[in-house]
């Protein structure tokens, strides 16, 4: 291979690694980092820098291991815990404040009312909070979703499904119908059994009771 072209390959591999470290989404970070490692394995193998080959082989293996584990745990309820909290809970208010800009981006117009009789849920994996769902009870067992937010690191895994899913708290609370906010960006509700209705989605729980 031409020496100049080979050097370009090395720089591209390094640039890809740098780009991977700028990602907030863990899944995307792992994939981009894996690509960078594979490029550098080829580059360092061609120039004969074997310690760097070994390093990138190990890093590539680590990325593959985390990607496989992430795919396996993505819909595994054992990897997540749904914690119900009061609307005026101080930690809930802290989470909403920290992620206020991101929440405004994905669900513009949401304003939390600590004095309202809302049902609030935090979704956690280990000691990390990865999602927030706020629901306002309505008449005849209807629940209106005010907020369904996932942190950027876990947005590919949609942990909100553990609130809405078969073993989530909505069925235990006796809700008969769940209605999502209008105009949510990139909604994932169709995968959870919701049906589109105008500009929002509806989950009918009456057949589950």
Could you name the key traits of this structure?
alpha+beta, 20% strand, elongated
Description:
The chain has 209 residues and is an alpha+beta fold. It contains seven helices and seven strands; from the N terminus they run αααβααβββααβββ. β2 and β3 form a beta hairpin. α2 runs antiparallel to α3. The mean pLDDT is 85.
Arrangement of strands in the largest sheet: 1-2-3-4-5-7-6
Strand content: 15-25%
Which regions contain 5 or more consecutive residues with pLDDT less than 50? none
**What structural category arises from helix and sheet content?**
alpha+beta
Through-space gap between termini: 67 Å
List SSEs in N-to-C order.
HHHEHHEEEHHEEE
Write the layout of secondary structure elements.
Blueprint: H1 3-21, H2 26-47, H3 50-73, E1 81-85, H4 90-98, H5 100-106, E2 119-125, E3 128-137, E4 142-150, H6 161-164, H7 169-172, E5 177-179, E6 195-197, E7 200-204
């Amino acid at each position: 291979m031409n020496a100049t072209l080979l050097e370009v390959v090395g720089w591209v591999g390094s640039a890809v690694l740098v780009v991977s470290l700028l990602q907030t989404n863990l899944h995307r970070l792992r994939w981009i980092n894996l690509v960078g490692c594979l490029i550098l394995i080829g580059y360092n193998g061609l120039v004969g820098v074997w310690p760097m080959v070994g390093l990138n082989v190990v890093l590539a293996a680590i990325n593959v291991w985390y990607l496989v584990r992430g795919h396996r745990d993505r819909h595994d309820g054992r990897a997540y815990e749904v914690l119900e909290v009061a609307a005026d809970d101080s930690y809930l208010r802290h989470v909403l404040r920290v992620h206020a800009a991101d929440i405004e981006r994905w669900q513009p117009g949401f304003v939390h009312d600590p004095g309202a009789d809302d049902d609030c849920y935090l979704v956690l994996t280990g000691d990390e909070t990865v999602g927030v769902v706020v629901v306002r009870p309505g008449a005849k067992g209807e629940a209106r979703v005010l907020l369904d937010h996932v942190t950027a690191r876990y947005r590919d895994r949609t942990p909100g499904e553990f609130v809405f899913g078969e073993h989530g708290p909505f069925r235990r609370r006796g809700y008969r119908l769940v209605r999502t906010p209008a105009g949510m960006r990139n909604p994932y509700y169709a995968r959870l059994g919701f049906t589109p209705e105008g500009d929002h989605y509806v989950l009918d729980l009456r057949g589950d009771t």
